[in-house]
Amino acid sequence: MEQLDVFDCSNVFIASYFTDDRDCAHFNREHTLIYIYSGELGITEQGRKTVLHPGDCAFMRRDNQMWLQKRVREGKPYRSFVLKFTAGFLRQFYQTLNRHEIPQDARRNKTSLYVMPSDRPDIRSLFESVIPYFDTATKPSEEILRMKMTEGIYAILNTDFNLYASLFDFVDPWKIDIMDFMEKNYKNELSMEEMASFTGRSLSTFKRDFKKCCDLTPQKWLIQRRLKAAHELIRKGGRKVTEICYEVGFKNLSHFSKIYKEAYGMAPTAR
Fold first, then answer.
1. Domain count along the chain
2. Which of 87, 117, 133, 219, CA to CA, is 20 to 30 A from 142?
3. Residues 203 and 225 placed together within one structural domain of the fold
4. How do residues 33-47 score in pLDDT, each as one tens digit?
5. In the chain, what is the straight-line distance between the N-terminal and C-terminal CA atoms, in Å?
6. CA-to-CA distance for 165 and 219, rounded, in angstroms?
7. What mean pLDDT value characterizes the chain?
8. Within this chain, do residues 92 and 150 fall inside the same structural domain, yes or no?
9. Phi and psi of 255, rounded to 5°?
């Protein structure tokens, strides 16, 4: 039987099977659970590295970028299963919750990665029950995918009540702080619609909430923040201007040079 490198079921359940080591940058656009069946996965986020082994599962919060190192171990391939939670499904699920049972004192963790406790039968069953689908390249029905997302949500919420604040980051009091999000993601190429979505808001609500925090528009704030970061790196020296330009989020060197000179009265010159 042919083994597929990646088997994607409606961008909800994704299976990966590799017989060689692979590294990649990953921008997480949805809340995600990842389960390691064999091999090893190194995840680096915010300068901290976490290694997952067979049987390990982790919750990856949306709106963050990570570096993934997928490794073959002890002659066994790298094999993992990913379950994504779409924004629409989470909103629908939230409406079914008893408001009196929702922990209002839940607080979102500062880190974007949460390693689930090991030896959880509910988590093992959640992922290993879908192996036959992937082994036969058979896509589960939409009903089964929704059932698995529901199982996954309960597995998360039964682990730590603070994860309510991460999963349901589109409602008060857990809405993602706009300026905190912008500060963490100003280097990334995100549209206004994506920034709104990642902070749990509609585009109009995002613009309105941003206006409460800042006198600038989001676009002008991004330009100023990137210029400030570039200026600090140039002053430190030892780096090429081109390298700095792209690192802080600009895509056009000539445009960067023009607006940098307008802001600081001099051309961006490496020291």
1. 3
2. 117
3. no
4. 999 999 999 999 878
5. 58
6. 28
7. 89
8. yes
9. -65, -40
Q: Give Rg (Cα) of the chain.
A: 21
pTM: 0.69
Confidence tier at 88 by pLDDT (50, 70, 90) = confident
- State the DSSP code for 177: P
Q: Rounded to the nearest 5 degrees, what angle is found at the Cα of 88, between the Cα atoms of 111 and 128?
A: 65
| Residue 172 placed within a domain | no
- Quote the pLDDT of residue 270: 62
Residue 154: other Cβ atoms inside 10 A: 13
- 195 and 142 in one domain? no
Residues 6+ apart with CB under 8 A from 252: none
Cα(177)–Cα(169) distance, integer angstroms: 10
CATH of the domain at 139: 2.60.120.810
Digit-coded pLDDT (tens) for 102-150: 888 888 777 789 999 988 999 999 999 999 988 888 888 999 999 999 9
pLDDT at residue number 135: 86
- Which domain covers residue 63, as residue numbers? 6-167
